[in-house]
Backbone:
């Protein structure tokens, strides 16, 4: 889960540290990487490409992305950059709206749980489009459904959550052609929905994100479900989930 911050608090630093410690094995991050890798295999014809991980956070995606090309990272948080440097030196401290790269610089740009942090999303997507090569791909994940809004979103400085129609319209207005759009974390949805409804109904308030270590057995079961989900995405699009995945192309 990438970060996109201007002001830094002690809680932010704690959240960064938590992410860095958990993201290599936690089912949420591993599941997203499984889906990402499957989609990259689907769209790539060769591996001699340049990839930008926009809003790279502490760098949890680098291990996956480096299998497919030369990876650069950008993030607005210098704290995140310090963590990410442990895995990749090709980093810049930058907002998405002001990426310091030439036009047509990258074959693929990924924004994994980043767009929801950006106030001026249209401006950011136009910058992404300029930075992509012609026929280059943008791969996006975002949190889904406002009724799932919780302290997790507040702790992660989210501006919004998305629906299928909302994300489709946002990308089309920026001039992208959508290749694949689907909800993801389909199997996780009933549990997340139930927990958040109970919390809201019982007025149980938190001040931190939901990210926490998972029992090893449960963690492995959920990772296995993400493998199933990644395979199914080759053939279908899910009608709901806790997140959305979009593969879009620049023409």
Residues:
């Amino acid at each position: 889960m990438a970060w996109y911050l201007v002001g830094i608090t002690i809680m932010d630093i704690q959240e960064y540290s938590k992410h860095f410690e958990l993201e290599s094995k936690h089912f949420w991050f591993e599941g997203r990487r499984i889906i990402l890798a499957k989609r990259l295999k689907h769209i790539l014809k060769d591996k001699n490409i340049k990839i930008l991980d926009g809003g790279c956070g502490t760098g949890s995606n680098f291990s996956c992305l480096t299998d497919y090309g030369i990876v650069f990272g950008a993030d607005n948080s210098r704290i995140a950059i310090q963590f990410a440097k442990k895995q990749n030196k090709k980093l810049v401290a930058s907002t998405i709206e002001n990426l310091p790269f030439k036009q047509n610089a990258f074959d693929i740009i990924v924004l994994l749980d980043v767009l929801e942090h950006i106030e001026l999303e249209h401006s950011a997507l136009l910058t992404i489009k300029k930075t992509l090569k012609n026929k280059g791909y943008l791969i996006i994940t975002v949190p889904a459904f406002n009724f799932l809004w919780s302290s997790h979103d507040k702790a992660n400085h989210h501006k919004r959550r998305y629906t299928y129609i909302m994300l489709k319209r946002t990308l089309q207005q920026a001039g992208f052609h959508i290749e694949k759009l689907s909800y993801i974390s389909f199997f996780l949805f009933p549990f997340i929905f139930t927990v958040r409804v109970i919390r809201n109904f019982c007025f149980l308030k938190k001040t931190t994100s939901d990210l926490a270590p998972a029992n090893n057995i449960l963690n492995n079961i959920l990772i296995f479900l993400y493998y199933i989900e990644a395979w199914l995405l080759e053939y279908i699009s899910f009608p709901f989930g806790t997140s959305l995945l979009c593969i879009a192309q620049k023409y």
